[in-house]
Amino acid sequence: MSPTERTAWTSLGTGLTVLALKGAAWWLTGSTALFADMLETVVNVAAACAALAAVRYSAMPADENHPYGHTKIEYFSAVLEGTLILVAASMILQEVWQAWANPRVPDQPVVGLALSAVATVINAAWATVLRRRGKRLGSPALVADSHYLMSDVVTSAGVIIGVGLVAATGLLWLDPLLAGVTAVMILFSGWRLLRESVGGLMDEGLGGEEVAAIRTLVSTNAEGAIEAHDLRTRRAGRISFVEFHLVVPGAMPVAEAHEICDRIEAALKDRLGNAVISIHVEPEGKAKHSGVVVL
């Protein structure tokens, strides 16, 4: 089992544990805000299942029908998670409308809030670990899951404080109000996740910092060449794709030009990790006098 798949399994187990705690908190109190918090975790568990399936599928090696591998499936998982978040938010808003018309005092608030607090601490700890692992392993599905978990932590903390205030002050309208705020925050989280995931499906280029690092590495490791131009990048799951044209002196032997390409490729892979590098070698007559100047 790969580290990415093992992490996805752990995320699913953590989600089920947190769901059980939040479900018990809602069942004990009957709070609309805690119901909203629990429903957000239901979505998280469903998303963890999707992430696990995507991680397992993306690990499959390239084949005849998928010569570039299967890593893009993780973006579909992230899109599904974003869609589920939006569905959960709409369900919460429906519950808010009913609770606003018929408010009620939460039952056993101390025990319910204690359970919710334990669940929130578990979520916060795992979200931090998951984000680091997802970035280290280059998994969009795991990173997306960590972002959602952290937003869940924020909303849960607000709900715990709010329900505590309801129990202490008797202001029943605070309960549906907090649930409504939770729904709005979930909507924002889902929209952001959808936007980022669709960007991956549309072959967005690497970030500005990474592109700048690529240009610097090409410039400092292409000794013997003249320039590099037409740099293009994209990311598919945990794999980065980089391609550009490298201009060399027309009389340079093929073996020497190939050695320069190997040197550049090694430097880029050391920086980017799992990457596919494509370098098109051209004679000096093709120089555009733009792009990356070799130092």
UniProtKB/TrEMBL annotation:
<dbReference type="InterPro" id="IPR036837">
    <property type="entry name" value="Cation_efflux_CTD_sf"/>
</dbReference>
<dbReference type="InterPro" id="IPR027469">
    <property type="entry name" value="Cation_efflux_TMD_sf"/>
</dbReference>
<dbReference type="GO" id="GO:0015341">
    <property type="term" value="F:zinc efflux antiporter activity"/>
</dbReference>
<dbReference type="InterPro" id="IPR058533">
    <property type="entry name" value="Cation_efflux_TM"/>
</dbReference>
<feature type="domain" description="Cation efflux protein transmembrane">
    <location>
        <begin position="16"/>
        <end position="202"/>
    </location>
</feature>
<feature type="domain" description="Cation efflux protein cytoplasmic">
    <location>
        <begin position="208"/>
        <end position="284"/>
    </location>
</feature>
<dbReference type="Pfam" id="PF16916">
    <property type="entry name" value="ZT_dimer"/>
</dbReference>
<feature type="transmembrane region" description="Helical">
    <location>
        <begin position="75"/>
        <end position="97"/>
    </location>
</feature>
<feature type="transmembrane region" description="Helical">
    <location>
        <begin position="177"/>
        <end position="194"/>
    </location>
</feature>
<dbReference type="GO" id="GO:0005886">
    <property type="term" value="C:plasma membrane"/>
</dbReference>
<dbReference type="InterPro" id="IPR050291">
    <property type="entry name" value="CDF_Transporter"/>
</dbReference>
<feature type="transmembrane region" description="Helical">
    <location>
        <begin position="149"/>
        <end position="171"/>
    </location>
</feature>
<dbReference type="GO" id="GO:0015093">
    <property type="term" value="F:ferrous iron transmembrane transporter activity"/>
</dbReference>
<feature type="transmembrane region" description="Helical">
    <location>
        <begin position="109"/>
        <end position="129"/>
    </location>
</feature>
<dbReference type="GO" id="GO:0015086">
    <property type="term" value="F:cadmium ion transmembrane transporter activity"/>
</dbReference>
<keyword id="KW-0472">Membrane</keyword>
<keyword id="KW-0812">Transmembrane</keyword>
<keyword id="KW-1003">Cell membrane</keyword>
<feature type="transmembrane region" description="Helical">
    <location>
        <begin position="7"/>
        <end position="28"/>
    </location>
</feature>
<dbReference type="InterPro" id="IPR027470">
    <property type="entry name" value="Cation_efflux_CTD"/>
</dbReference>
<dbReference type="GO" id="GO:0006882">
    <property type="term" value="P:intracellular zinc ion homeostasis"/>
</dbReference>
<dbReference type="Pfam" id="PF01545">
    <property type="entry name" value="Cation_efflux"/>
</dbReference>
<keyword id="KW-0813">Transport</keyword>
<dbReference type="InterPro" id="IPR002524">
    <property type="entry name" value="Cation_efflux"/>
</dbReference>
<protein>
    <recommendedName>
        <fullName>Protein p34</fullName>
    </recommendedName>
</protein>
<comment type="similarity">
    <text>Belongs to the cation diffusion facilitator (CDF) transporter (TC 2.A.4) family.</text>
</comment>
<feature type="transmembrane region" description="Helical">
    <location>
        <begin position="34"/>
        <end position="55"/>
    </location>
</feature>
<keyword id="KW-1133">Transmembrane helix</keyword>
